[in-house]
Amino acid sequence: MGSLLKRDIMKPFPTLSLAKISVCLILFLCQFSFGQTIRGKIESSNPDAIASLEIYNLTNNHATLTSKEGTFEIKGDLGNSLQFYYEGEKYIVNVSNTHFCSIKIDKLVKEREQDARKSEKKAAQKNKRANRKYKRYNKKPLALITNDHERYKNPYKNSVIGRITDKHDALPLVTVQIKGKTITAQTDLDGYFGIDAKIGDILLIQYIGYETSEIKVTHPIMNFVLQENTMTLSEVVVTSYSPTVKRKMTSSVERITVSESVVSDKEMLSAAAPSTSGSSSTGPKAGQLTATEVNDFSHYTYWQGLTESELNQWKNYWKICPTQRYSLVIKNDKGFPIVSKKVFLKSGETTLWVSRTDNTGRAELWNTPETTSINAGSGLQITDEKGTVLVANAKEFHEGINSYSYATDCTSKVKINIGFMIDATGSMGDEISYLQSELYDVIEKTKQHLPESEVKMSSLFYRDTSDDYVVKNFDFTANIPNVIDFIKNQNAGGGGDYPEAVIEGLDNAIHQMSWEDDATSKLLFVVLDAPPHYSETNVKKLHELGRQAAEKGIRIIPLAASGIDKSTEYLMRALALETNGTYLTLTNHSGIGDNHIAPSAESTKVEMLNELLLRIIQQFGAVNRCDQKEEDFAQNSILNEQSAKDKSITFTYAPNPTTDLVTIRIDVPAHEVFLFDTTGKLIFYKTDKATEYTLDLTGLPNAVYYLKVATEEKIFYGKIIKRS
């Protein structure tokens, strides 16, 4: 018995051939991947109508577009609900097979038309009763066209669509507003409109020269014929349009000139009308919006002062104040930056902050930036993932640079992930079409300006919790035209109150977007015009999201639109600092959109938005490699321009290039000397008054750096090349 038992135990397992193991592994991986991805096709008797349809997974907020053949892939699983619009109508289908989800659109359309006829019959009866009621009180009824109109020509995908005309023709730029709410829309050049209204809402219809009308929504398709107001029509004077600055800026600004060109009425209407065909050629041209950058890493002591003065109340409101900064630079033994290296700021065994090195080899770490946390004090360490102590006694930023070198190879491949998170609520209606055009331009040019980089992009749109969607996420892809098409398909709508679902948007952007772990740069542009909803829970969630983004190496770059207040400005600048980003804001110089507040800053330089975004992507994306020559190192166009200006006094710095020390000499006393990297970030500074300074660049990676020397009367710039 014992021997039998022994033989059974010692009997070897049946051997499997390599081919069988491979087949089993493939089957397992396929089963796993199918559980994460829904593949399908929309089938229709009209093949031209199934390309570039947006498929939205209501369960996980992911979105995608169909191919020319109607096929699609989207993140999801069994039981998920997919939503899409076909010829202006919304459809929702449940997924019963992730291997291949076939959607027969002709069948769905037929069922929808049957339901629509029933609804139209009921609506016609209600309209008849409403008109009788108007006549009873001697009021002229608002003429309603029958609801079974040419709805397939309406390009909008809102819950209520329609067309507005007078007795002769379509009326463009008619204002349609939901009574009692801030949600508005305008008709396009063909009189069509779309608005996120509900059955029972009252629509206010307003147009110069016509009677203001109110009508109750009784059907998803509402068409109106406006009556002329002869008393006011003769008093209307149409004048040419030119951009104007809406308010005087109070901060010191290097201004650009906005030409006051006169345009025709037709051009004005074309520029104001939203894009309806999905082509950027029908919308506003790129290069119209103006913006400025506030890089608080460049003026760090000024930021620290703001948190104790002008912006102090918002520090206490959001309970966040990143001021105790520890900068670390990591390079290899050849002197080039090591990127995307995870590092930890620690007090004993307690981890205070986790970050990753950026494209310049620099990581920003913070000692308890939440005001609700207890400060860990001094004597902090910086370690890597393996527990190796990189800096035994870390220096705070004002004390100097923390640095470490590894014996490792240079970065061989530059991989850039760029995400766009965009507020799509109704309050963005004054600028969203212009922003879309600017983004098309930037996205198309990014690949041209970074030809040797592997670029992937994604786009996320968010609204508010009571809207038809909260978050819509188009995941990362190397197919850049698909990202552009997705952005083109979006429009502003919903909202109503001031705060929006910013937290939900950030949460999805950080955790649901497929950021690549080995990407050398991860940039998240957050376009918004309102703050998140405020509560103690939400404040804690914001603190968590800032930490999580920093740990993943995601650099948050806010872009503030009209409507932003000082509270939101402070919050977004704090998140930008925590995640090694920068803060951008639109300005009034373009004359487009509502008023934009001037940021709290020492000085700002106004740029065209598309040029600014492209500059930021290049500065935050470029990586200096071992095989590059000095003249090919990444540079900063703004600081290049400053350093090229003629010097009215003797100002020298040598040796240049340098391997370690550089001596600065000036024939009049200077009181401040600063050194910046190519992203505009302040590396270190001296504030003693002298005519000669020595800077030690030994711990810095090989790169281009910029000097700023301030005398009593002038500021001078210079460019230094560090090369080991």
From TrEMBL:
<dbReference type="Pfam" id="PF18962">
    <property type="entry name" value="Por_Secre_tail"/>
</dbReference>
<keyword id="KW-0175">Coiled coil</keyword>
<protein>
    <submittedName>
        <fullName>T9SS type A sorting domain-containing protein</fullName>
    </submittedName>
</protein>
<dbReference type="InterPro" id="IPR056861">
    <property type="entry name" value="HMCN1-like_VWA"/>
</dbReference>
<keyword id="KW-0964">Secreted</keyword>
<dbReference type="InterPro" id="IPR008969">
    <property type="entry name" value="CarboxyPept-like_regulatory"/>
</dbReference>
<dbReference type="Pfam" id="PF25106">
    <property type="entry name" value="VWA_4"/>
</dbReference>
<dbReference type="InterPro" id="IPR052969">
    <property type="entry name" value="Thr-specific_kinase-like"/>
</dbReference>
<feature type="domain" description="VWFA">
    <location>
        <begin position="417"/>
        <end position="616"/>
    </location>
</feature>
<dbReference type="GO" id="GO:0005737">
    <property type="term" value="C:cytoplasm"/>
</dbReference>
<dbReference type="InterPro" id="IPR036465">
    <property type="entry name" value="vWFA_dom_sf"/>
</dbReference>
<dbReference type="InterPro" id="IPR002035">
    <property type="entry name" value="VWF_A"/>
</dbReference>
<keyword id="KW-0732">Signal</keyword>
<dbReference type="Pfam" id="PF13715">
    <property type="entry name" value="CarbopepD_reg_2"/>
</dbReference>
<dbReference type="InterPro" id="IPR026444">
    <property type="entry name" value="Secre_tail"/>
</dbReference>
<feature type="coiled-coil region">
    <location>
        <begin position="109"/>
        <end position="140"/>
    </location>
</feature>
<dbReference type="GO" id="GO:0004674">
    <property type="term" value="F:protein serine/threonine kinase activity"/>
</dbReference>
